[in-house]
Every structure is written in structure tokens, then in C-alpha cells.
Amino acid sequence: MRLDVITIFPEYLDPLRHALLGRAIERGILDVAVHDLRSWTHDVHKAVDDTPYGGGPGMVMKPTVWGPALDDVAALTGPAADGLRLDSAHPHVAADDVPEPDAPGGRDDRPVLVVPTPAGRPFTQATAERWATEERLVFACGRYEGIDQRVFEDAGERYRVEEVSLGDYVLIGGEVAVLVMAEAVVRLIPGVLGNRRSHEEDSFQDGLLEGPSYTKPRVWRDREVPAVLLSGDHAKVDRWRRDQALLRTAAVRPELVEALEHDGRLDGHDRSVLEGTAE
Ligand code: SAM
């Protein structure tokens, strides 16, 4: 997968070079290019924003800068041809642990243009799963009051545009949102996590939040690990984990349990756990 990020703060994306993402870069699973939006300005001040039509506070990012930037990043031409390619921050894998590249596929090769904005559709685990199968994601980091809307109407000719929100709050810029989304997506790419089951059992994979986890020692500050986890009975452990996931989800995200009930994904035992009548 290739990620391109367009931003006025390229250094903000440096965390993409670390840990699992840095390892994915080293192994050739991930390629990350960061582009400084100011490369597409033509004035001495390198201005990327201007006052809003209709009045009001703040500034809006200019279509005359974003349009050419997105054209070049789609085609990898102009300043985008030599955007800053991130390498891994430090070695994470042995040289002989690098996988063979996949054969090219025959799918829609227009990249997805991800536009972080509080006015977008919610970014969820389902979004991350969908994007994890893409060959290219391009992220447009807004600042100030955001980007002139015509930029995205126009970009629809070269990209599949998706406006997405991290949640019902307002950040200062799109860079942190990109870091969040890139982590959520890249860890789902086959080969990135050491153990595939790690994400198959994560929160949201089955519509529930994950229950509590424990490690050694068995007793810590007089608190014991639940006995079932030491039983060696895998069926019992799985049932206990699902019960805990159901109870936690019902307590903090009841709407997720309602959605499972609505979709017919709760069985009789699940219901008895939720009603407190399970044995
Ligand atoms: N005027 C915008 C509004 O009210 O919808 C807020 C702009 S915000 C100050 C600047 C940038 O931060 C946005 O263009 C976007 O890139 C990013 N941003 C802020 N909140 C976000 C959120 N909840 N999800 C994703 N991106 C967000």
C-alpha cells in the first residue's frame, strides 16, 4: 500500500516511521510519501489560505493551491514526484524477513482521497477494513476553517473522495486524524501484525468491545486473575471472553448491543448474560 499525505506541517507525520508502521515500510509492505502543500504556492509568502466568502471568522484553504497539489499527487508529477519518502525510524526487521510483492490486480486504480473533517461520515473499524485492501490512499490535511469545498468536487474526477470524521469534536488540523486513520488501516494489512488473531479478536471485529485482558503474575496486589483463564479449557475461556465483552459493551456502548440484537447476532446465552440470568 502507498500512503500520500498533503500537509503544511510535513514533520507532523514523522510518527508514521516508527514501530509497526516503520517495520511495514522496511518490509516493503508500506510506502509513505509526505508532500508540503506550500510547494504548490506561487507567491512570495507561500500563502495557502484566504478570507471566507460570505464573511465570518478564520481563513479557508485556497483551491488554487490544493487543486494543482491533488492533480500532481494523483499522477505523481511536479513537486509530488519527489515528495518526502519516509523511511523507517530505525531497523525493525531482519533483512531476510522481507515479503515478495503481490502481483498487480485489475481493480479501480483511482486512489481514495481521504478528507478528514468533523463534517464527514464517522471513521470506523469498517472503514479501516475497507481501506486496508486499497493500493493507494491520499490524505488531504486541512487547517484553519478547512478547504474550499470545490476542491473535492473537482478531485472526484481523479479520486474516489471520502470525507470522514474521527468523532464529534474539533481538532486544530487534519494531521493527527491522519495518524489515527493510518494506524488503524495499516495494522489490518496482512503481514503487518505478527499474529493475525491479534486484530481478529479486537474490539469492533464482532460488533462488541473487547473484554478485560490479564498477564502474569497470577496475583498482583492481592488481586487475582479470573480463575477461568487458568483452566486450560478453551471453550470456557472463549465463552467467558464473550460474556465479558457483552457486559462491557452493554455498560459503555449500549447502542452496539442493540445493533447486534437488531441484526440477529445475539443468541439465547448472550441474552441471559445481558439479563443477568446466565448460570
Ligand atoms: N470549520 C471546520 C468545521 O467546523 O467543520 C473545522 C475546521 S478544523 C479547525 C481544521 C481541520 O482539522 C479540518 O479541516 C480537518 O482536517 C481537521 N479536523 C478537525 N476536527 C476533525 C475531526 N473530528 N475529524 C477529522 N478531522 C478533523
From TrEMBL:
In short, the EC number is 2.1.1.228
What GO CC terms are in its UniProt record? cytosol
> Has keyword tRNA processing?
yes
Per UniProt, what is one Pfam family of this protein? tRNA_m1G_MT
A GO biological process held by the record: tRNA N1-guanine methylation
Sorted alphabetically, the keyword list is: Cytoplasm, Methyltransferase, S-adenosyl-L-methionine, Transferase, tRNA processing
Enzymatic reactions: guanosine(37) in tRNA + S-adenosyl-L-methionine = N(1)-methylguanosine(37) in tRNA + S-adenosyl-L-homocysteine + H(+)
Residue ranges the record marks as coiled coil? none
> Per the record's keyword annotation, is Calcium included, yes or no?
no
Main localization, broad class: cytoplasm
Record's subcellular location: Cytoplasm
Drop me one GO molecular function for this one: tRNA (guanine(37)-N1)-methyltransferase activity
Domain (tRNA methyltransferase TRMD/TRM10-type): give its ranges: 1-75, 110-258
Superkingdom of this protein's organism = Bacteria
For binding S-adenosyl-L-methionine, which residues are annotated in this chain's numbering?
G142, L166, G167, D168, Y169, V170, L171
UniProt record similarity statement:
Belongs to the RNA methyltransferase TrmD family.
Assembly and partners are described as:
Homodimer.
What role does it play? Specifically methylates guanosine-37 in various tRNAs.
- Record's protein name: tRNA (guanine-N(1)-)-methyltransferase
- According to the entry, what is the taxonomic lineage of the organism? Bacteria, Bacillati, Actinomycetota, Actinomycetes, Mycobacteriales
